[in-house]
Structure formats: structure tokens, C-alpha cells
Specification:
- With 111 residues, the protein is mostly beta strands.
- It contains one helix and seven strands.
- Strands 1-2-7-4-5-6-3 form a seven-stranded antiparallel sheet.
- Strand 1 and strand 2 form a beta hairpin.
- The N and C termini lie far apart (49 Å).
Length: 111
Amino acid sequence: DDAAANTFSWLRFSSGDDIVACVSNYSPSPYPHYGLQVPKAGWWEEILNSDAAEFDGSGSFGNLGGCMASPNTAGEGATLMVCVPPLATVWLRWTPEQQQTQDDEAPQPID
């Protein structure tokens, strides 16, 4: 995928609507703003981060529970900016329901 950055990324699709974006970083350098092309805009929940403390990682790099993918200007797909820890793997699952919940809980302007 990205030989210059020593990363490999792929998408997994279920028979339903689940999509999981996976990225592995084989380099000792973190990538705090790594761009991934994904098929859907919206909220992507971080479901695995091998750098997390519960996996005996450093716990220094993460996505604070997830990332928001922005629609591409060309009209197809979206760009997901991910924090990828060094020598680690991150999995993110597209969760359209989570996006709706976040929008509902967002502060509303006072009239």
C-alpha cells in the first residue's frame, strides 16, 4: 500500500452493512494525521488500537474513540484522518448510528 511509510491498509466488509478500515504501521515513526480512503463519510469508531495500554502498548497514540471521515470533493468515498501509532495496528468500524447520536447531542444555538 504505502511502502514509503511502511504501512499497509485494507477494508473488511461484512454481509451486512459493517465496514472495518484496518491500518498497520511497520515503522518506528507515528503518523498522527494519516489519510485513508474509505467508502463512507461519517463516524468511524476505533475498535482496536494495539498501542493501547490494555494491550501493553505505550498508550500514547490513539484516536480518542474514533474519527470523522469527510466526503471527498470528487464525490466518491471519503477521507479518514487517523492517528497511527508506531509499530501498531488500528481498526476502525463505520458507525452511522454513532454519528446521528453525536449530532443529537451537539450544542444547539440559542435563539
